[in-house]
Amino acid sequence: MGYTDNYERDPYGIIAFFLRNDYDHGRFFDREISHYETELARANLNNVQRLGKIWERAAKKQGDIGRLIDDAQHATNEFHSLLAYTMDKSLHCEVIISTPLSLIDHMVREAEESQRIFKLIDSGETYTPSDAIIHESVFWLRQMADHLGYIHHYVDLSNYDLHHQITQMTEKFQRLLLQAQALQTMIRPPRNKMLPVLDQFRKMLIPEVQDLEKFKLELDDLIKKCAAATTSPPDLLEHIAREAHHLWRNLEDEVIS
Ligand SMILES: [Fe+2]
Ligand SMILES: [Fe+2]
């Protein structure tokens, strides 16, 4: 698993994870912008370059962390604005791109999660393990269910059996998301105590997310070898496997990061 070699969970590593996430989104989006949309393509590329440079600094743990967070926040805010603006254009059928609306929304939400995490690291704010499990599962399970939908979107229709398997996994993750949302409203704040139902949910979730990570990595391998008919960017599956990895590590450590 190549990506886990440089997946670190100290503040620099977490900042690098989110910067790389947005950087990848920009690169993937670049492939799907029509050549008629020169301004959008240029603006997106500027964001990719800027995010890439800050990501590099974070990955090398270079310089003062306060300055790094500040730069990361500015770059993420700008990218978020571009995506939200494009999503609105797409809703009004005023832009020529092949990216589905829900995928733009997915990227907007991950940019917003980056903004939250940068703020959290900067403020040193504290939260309880119960709050962490509820936040992580409600936020990321929707992303996990979405990922399976995007695999559907990119994998060629001729892979009938794979599509069937993906449908079943999507339904499973949608049910897990509903359970997380139910726990969120049933267990009201302040969530000082870890309730057995929430801990049991966490324990059940970790292996499910690990299996999803494994599935994504297996498909990643096939796509990189050009052995699966797909229109997916070559490293998209690795990207979404990394997000699954991030989720189960956070569930294991009972933290928001
Ligand atoms: Fe992502
Ligand atoms: Fe994602």
Automatic annotation (TrEMBL):
<protein>
    <recommendedName>
        <fullName>DUF2935 domain-containing protein</fullName>
    </recommendedName>
</protein>
<dbReference type="InterPro" id="IPR021328">
    <property type="entry name" value="CotB-like"/>
</dbReference>
<dbReference type="Pfam" id="PF11155">
    <property type="entry name" value="DUF2935"/>
</dbReference>
